[in-house]
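User: Okay, second chain of the day. Same drill as before: sequence in, structure tokens out.
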Amino acid sequence: MLEPKITRDLIGGGWKDLAYEPFKPGIVAHWLLKGEPGVAILWYEPGAQAPMHLHVDVETILVLDGSQTDEFGTYEKGDYVINPRGSRHSVHSRDGCVVLLTYTKPVRFL
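Assistant: Same drill. Structure tokens below.
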């Protein structure tokens, strides 16, 4: 029987003690589940950005700390964003942020 992977107290800051690896310039990732589907915690340094990308399938973001902005608005701690299949945007974080990312298929950077 497969056992669940448990990460404790993400909302309370448990993400601070995890091991991260480079993802994009100014963004590091801790992979809870790598592949398809994927689950990661992304930690943006102040001023970091993810370039324009297409959502090949559904992606969700839960902001755990700070805020991030795209063409549709600014999302702050506690906000939950669903990016539908076929949507596209670029993301940046002026002051830095940490988000819980889930996706069924990886995005395609444009």
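The chain has one domain: 14-109.

User: Thanks, on to the next one.
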